Every structure is written in structure tokens, then in C-alpha cells.
């Protein structure tokens, strides 16, 4: 979506005034210049330079043409009149771009695209295309000729998808493919209405899948974009990304750019997410999404070693929602989710995007690694609770040891590049912890800094054991040999996290 562009018409001017009779001349060698007198045709050009096209090239070209012709009637132009709205301060606008028509907080007209879902008028598009439209401010244009007012059926900010409806019959719905079958390197086509140019087709390949670009500004944002180098520009938002069978595999949504125009990378919401979101919006007017109730992080080899895993795979449960689905099923912090319903999970958004296609009450099977063992857990998904909070477990209260001279020392771990000291009673109260040691100094580019430990962090646990003094931390680290990894539990601000660090 962009502000309305004024696109100048391209005028081809042919200058060639013929006055009177055309002279036919020869120059010594009698070469015919191809000019004729009277009613004979003018002879221009010559024979085709290639007698026969490569069959594979011709087949690919014919495939592009066939898909473009078949699907173009199912991709519409959307024009919106927006209401004035202040741009959120945290909305990215310098590299990854949505195409918002009201970036300056002023009423305006904007353009986007949509994909016909049903013959009776339901159309998919992006949330950011229609979310700020004024009442009765959405119009849909078919073939540059037929125009309808559209009703907003529902939006899903978490996926940046929306459904609108026009009062029409006999429309041509697009075929919806299966985004799980999309592979990096395959040819794709993008159809939309960029820069005011309706029914524009561009081609490229899938350049990545499962891409998270942190552009959806929603607490529960779900990003697992299909990345493509097919040209996508303002106005393409909400249009179709197609495979070579003419099936929609994604809804074009955003681009990576430094100038708000195409620079080679576009992103589309996978069609499998669209299927669930659109069906819910049409049926209920809202998305009824199941939630598993975990905060997760990816695993690298150092963390894997600290957890007793041979390979870095799966995603680690960092925190659990109190009373959430995962907690009720018996999952714990530091459990590693290896699979969901038989599908490997190695990135956060792989789990999130799969759960996004499920509803409350659905049961998913997780393959879990815990303390050297692998087992399965069935989890019944629950609806999102507005008051659900991540479990805070800064440490159980316990009697602190007597403050011996050893316990009160400040200790520097030269190999790790950090210094820790005992917390004062005032600091414990201020930081809301019952135990731990304060990181008082960090060496830039040292091992601790490289693993994400910062100055003024509080180390609560080491190797899953409570830490109350620098001496206890030294003992825990000393119990590991060089090359081993140790798991540390850190608190900063109001958040806790597990970090792994390799012993030098």
C-alpha cells in the first residue's frame, strides 16, 4: 500500500512525415532499401535469428504465460480511503517495510491487492492494507473495469492478514496450495497491483523459507515468511505468490529495502496460515487460535552441550505461562521441543507457525528432550487468556549461608571475562531476588559478553543449582573441565533467561 501515485502515461512519438512520392534509389550495387512505391507494404525487419527455440525454455515461458492468464482474474486491486492515524513509534520504517498509506498520520488514499477466496465474494488481503480504512472506505476493482464497495469481515494483526467481502457472484476463486511443499530455489510468480499498475506479473524464485524479520508489531506476532526475489513493490501487498501450477502459496506482504521500493527481497505469509485465518474470520469474524503457553528460544551447540545434548537441535522452553497448556501437560523450563506432530522443530517460528494453524481444544504431540531422555507429551491447546502471564521463577526462598570471608569476596573469572560480587540486602530488595551474584564487570568481546551476559545481570543459578555467593559460582564452574558448557540462569530487569557458556 502506498499513497496514491500519479503515473505519467508513456507516449510513443513516431516522427516520420512523408511528403509526396517516395523515392527509390540504388547506390551502385543495386541494393534494395526495402522501400516501395504506391500501395505495396513497407518491408521492415528480417527472419528470426533462432530457427527453433530450446524446448525447455519454451515450456517454461509457456508455463509462465499460462499461470498468469489463469490466475490474474482471481487477483484484484484494492483502493482504500484511510482515516488519520498516528504512526506507532515502534513501527519499523527504515529497512523492512509494510506499505502503509497513512505513514504521516494524514487521511489518504492507498492501493493494495487481494486474492479471491470464494465465488460469492470473500477476498483475502493484508491487515495493513485495510485496517485503517474509513467506514465504507474499501473498494475492490476487477479487470480495471468493475468496481465494488467492500465490507471488512475481520483482521488478524498477529499474521497481518484480513478478509473483506464484496456483493458479487460467479467470481473466480484462486486455487490454494500447500506451503509445506514450498522449496528454496523453485520458480514463483507474484501477481498484484504495484505502483498503480494493475494486474502486474513478476517472476523469481523462493530464496528462503521460514523467515522471521520482526516486522509484525504485535505481542503474539507470527512470522514465518516465504522470501522471494520476484519484484514486489508498494501496491503488491495482499496479492498472490504462486507456484508453477498456479496455486497460491503465499500472500505478498513486505519487502526488505532502504528506499521503500523493490531491492530484491520480498516476503509472503504462507498460504497454510491464510487457510486457517481466513476460515475463522469468515465463520466467526475473529481468529480462534490455539496457544501452547511457552516462551521458547533456539539452541546453539554451546547450549546443547550444557543441556547434555549431542546435537544442537530443537527449541528450548525458556518460560511457561502459568496455567497454560504446556504447564498443565507437565512440561518444564529447559525442556527441549524436538518435534511437533512428527515435524522437526529447530526454529522458534517453525513451532509458532504450526500452532497458528490449530484451534483451542486441538491436541498436539510434542517430542521432548529432558535430562538425557527423550519422550512424548500430548498437549491440549487452549485459547489465549488476556491475563495469562509467564511464570516467574527467580528462585525459591532459602536460608542463606553465613557470610564467610570467602562468600563475600569479589571474584574475577579471567577466562570468561567477567567479575561477580555478592549482592547487598538493598540490591536484593530492589532487584526482587532472594539470592544470586551480581555481574559487576564484563570484558568487551570476552566469552561471557559473547554469550549475552551483561554488566549488572544477576546470576541466579549455575548448572541448575542455586547460587548465593561468588564462591558457589566458582565451585560450580570449577567442577567443569575445559571445553565443557555450563548453564547459567540470569536475571535482568524483570526478565529471566537461561544462557550457556563454554568453559575455556
Report on the structure:
- This protein has 504 residues and is α+β, with helices and mostly antiparallel strands.
- Helices cover 14% and strands 34% of the residues.
- The chain has 9 helices and 29 strands.
- The strands form 5 sheets. Strands 23, 24, 25, 26, 27, 28 and 29 form a 7-stranded antiparallel beta sheet that branches. A 6-stranded antiparallel β-barrel has the order 1-3-4-7-6-5.
- Mean pLDDT is 83; it is low at 1-38, 88-94 and 386-408.
Question: How would you sum up this structure in a few lines?
Answer:
With 504 residues, this protein is of the alpha+beta class. Helices cover 14% and strands 34% of the residues.
List strands and helices in order, with pairings:
Blueprint: H1 55-71, E1 75-82, E2 96-97, E3 108-116, E4 122-126, H2 127-130, E5 133-142, E6 146-156, E7 161-166, E8 175-176, E9 187-192, E10 200-211, E11 225-228, E12 240-242, E13 247-256, E14 265-270, H3 271-284, E15 290-291, E16 294-298, H4 301-306, E17 315-320, H5 325-328, E18 336-340, E19 343-344, H6 348-355, E20 363-370, E21 373-380, E22 382-383, E23 411-413, E24 418-422, H7 425-431, E25 437-442, H8 447-450, E26 458-462, E27 465-466, H9 470-478, E28 485-492, E29 495-502
Parallel strand pairs: 8-13
Antiparallel strand pairs: 1-3, 1-5, 2-13, 3-4, 4-7, 5-6, 6-7, 9-10, 9-12, 10-11, 11-14, 12-13, 13-14, 15-22, 16-17, 17-18, 18-19, 18-20, 20-21, 23-24, 24-25, 25-26, 26-27, 26-28, 28-29
